[in-house]
Amino acid sequence: QVQLVQSGTEVKKPGASVKVSCKASGYTFTVYYLHWVRQAPGQGLEWMGHINPNSGDTKYAQTFQGRVTLTRDTSISTAYMELNSLKSDDTAVYFCARGGPLPGFGYWGQGALVTVSS
Amino acid sequence: DIQMTQSPSTLSASVGDRVTITCRASQSIRTWLAWYQQKPGKAPKLLIYKASNLESGVPSRFSGSGSGTEFTLTIRSLQPDDFATYYCQQYNSYSFGGGTKVEI
Q1: Which string of b and e fits A63-97 if b means at least 16 CB within 10 Å?
Q2: Cross-chain CB nearest to B34 (options A62, A104, A110)
Q3: pLDDT at B22 over 90
Q4: CA–CA gap between residue B19 and residue B85 (Å, rounded)
Q5: Average pLDDT over every residue of A25-33
Q6: Do B44 and A44 touch (CB under 8 A)?
Q7: Tens digits of residue pLDDT in B42-58
Q8: For residue B40, which of A14, A110, B10, B103 sits 20 to 30 Å off, Cα-Cα?
């Protein structure tokens, strides 16, 4: 069965960077886009960007352009989201989600809580 | 960027009620719309894709309709497990609506 397993809770200071991983299993990693979505405490869902695991091509939401980098390691079926210059309002749960073959994010990771605090 | 607006933001209902949630897009997205259900502390769950297609395993009391800029999610007879927050998402640039919390 398809599974996306994310790395654990992170606590970071303002100005630091965080890198969250998302390990995929149960399907061919390179076939479907992986998306990243975040959710601040008590708030809605915010799409951050996606990566084509086959080519490595990325697309980022305007809000995060220049501050987020999506990468992947096909040898271990793992995608990564790195967010730089962290601020307190980056405190959120960060989800990875798989796209395709039908439109919609049918599979999600369990989420990784990132807390930014001095 | 395409903006998605959901209404209402909160909805009070009872078991057995018919519930309708509306989602409006700032420009036409044809039928490139998905609906998700999220419960506290959990990842969202895909309910409907391409505006009206039920995801496998989702109960048939859920239905979606609409095209262009106006969409609706209907829950035919609300069950205790349906109390949650619902989000729409457009599939052109992937932005989400603000969510609708369905509470007792």
Answers
A1: ebeebbbbebeeeebbbbbebeebeeebbbbbbbb
A2: A104
A3: yes
A4: 13
A5: 97
A6: no
A7: 999 999 999 999 999 99
A8: A14
